[in-house]
Design brief:
alpha/beta; Rossmann fold; 5-stranded parallel beta sheet; 4-stranded mixed beta sheet
Length: about 220
Amino acid sequence: MRPFPVILSAPSGAGKTTIARKLLERRADLGYSVSCTTRNPRPGELHERDYHFMSHAEFVADRDAGAFAEWAEVHGNLYGTLRREVERVLSTGRHCLMDIDVQGARQFAEAFPETVLIFILPPSGEVLLQRLNGRGSEDPERLLTRLKNARAEISEVARYHYVVVNDDLELAIERVGAVIDAESVRHDRVHSLDAQVGALIAQLEQEIHGIQRGDSHAGVHTG
């Protein structure tokens, strides 16, 4: 199996984080890249388990050195995914599963072109609005920001390889799992096919060159 990164993106409230967590719990072929952030740890969060907590200066130094596959500033804090973290997971033979926003997914796919991009959609606009609005106590300005962000994120759906509608959590988990299984077969098949075709072409070219040189040993060999 040739492992590859898998990114789940979605508007807030569509369930991508829950789907990612459930898949990581159920599948031994998946690993998770721990992200970096400059924000302070929240109660119960541990360094190197939940995040790599970094100072602003440390983050900027790594960013400027090209260490991040993707990064972004959110509410004044910096977040990013280290290339070496992704490579660490892939080196264990596991696919690297992450939930990243659309901006980060674009950057990440440039760093790792073999990435499989999956967009998670809510079943309807009504459901999305209900999830974004929470219990109706959301501050209007904050709600407006979340609505605008959701609109911008959904407009990027055409950039993704797959779209999964989260109308039922268990079904959505199964669908994302099926995508990973199908892509695993495709990646292995393409790798094997490329090697086989390359060997055949090399053998044919050797035969052609021998004939063109007038090599007495050249000819079509059958066995």
